Amino acid sequence: MTRQIRAALIGLGNVGRNFLRILEMKGERLERQYGLTFQVVCVADSSGVAVAPQGFDPEATRRHKETGGRVADLPGFLPGVGPAQVLADLTCDLVLDASPVNLESGEPGLSVARTALARGVDTVLANKAPLVLAYQELHRLAQESGAGLAFSATVCGALPVINIGQRDLIGAEIRLLQGIFNSTSNFILGEMAQGRSYQEALAEAQERGIAEADPSLDVEGWDTANKLVILANSVLGAPTTLDQVQVTGILDVTTEQLQALARQGRTLKLLAVAQREGEGYRFSVGPTELPVESFLGRCDGWEMGVEIRSDLYGRMYHKIWEREPLPTAAAMLRDAVNLATRH
Fold this sequence. Notes:
The protein is an alpha/beta fold. It contains twelve helices and 13 strands. The chain folds into two domains: 171 residues, NAD(P)-binding Rossmann-like Domain (Rossmann fold); 161 residues, 2-Layer Sandwich (Dihydrodipicolinate Reductase, domain 2).
């Protein structure tokens, strides 16, 4: 028997559009393998919200956005209301938030997550801001309402770091968790070491849809810090906020510095570190020298990686190569299917 999942997709940027692309590509497989069909009944972008009870066609909606269209131009557009207002009454089974990260207010993602979870609607986040600003609150809402809350797409795209930490390290004390969590900064550092300019490398990252038009979250270290905060709360069991992380970006790194390190068999990576100290952890993000032949030293270009050391499971190393937004969108699908089939 096939179950239809009525979904609201908030955010139609690179990740949101690729989620629609996956529904085009994999719709038949999802129905055959998992007994699920996804009907997108609500979409939102910066121009507003549109609702179609019969569902938006994924391919037509994606192409509309890719050719410069806005949600405000779609049938079912609701002028003058935000996504959280619409979700307060919308009949749906799942909310997917791929809206832009806003660390000041968390909006629109924070209100979207609060509204959906309070109503008992399963929620999947690719947007890190709601978790960074209100991790404990959102989990409390989910627990009270019985809603599912999943967010594996928020850390290292498709690399299942959160899933591994929550599912596969049962009983362990994690003594060190460190990693390269931002492929944009990693790519830029690698290109600069080869003599390419910072601006040229950044422009390519933006062209591929990995870095945003405003890349400050990537290159100033805040995207990495956001992910470290999420891991601290979800995997390490350490209630942590962004102001507890010491953060330094890569803006002061020079080509000369990188090339000098290379001659010494060393490299520079933007490293996130959670180091066990007493009963808690010390958190930091910053450019860090590593041996070229170390696991994280060999994470080059578009790769991201994580090293986890624990008392029970030894040392674990995980890595992914991700040069486009499609794998992050796939992580949202993974979460959605897991929530839909968890019972």
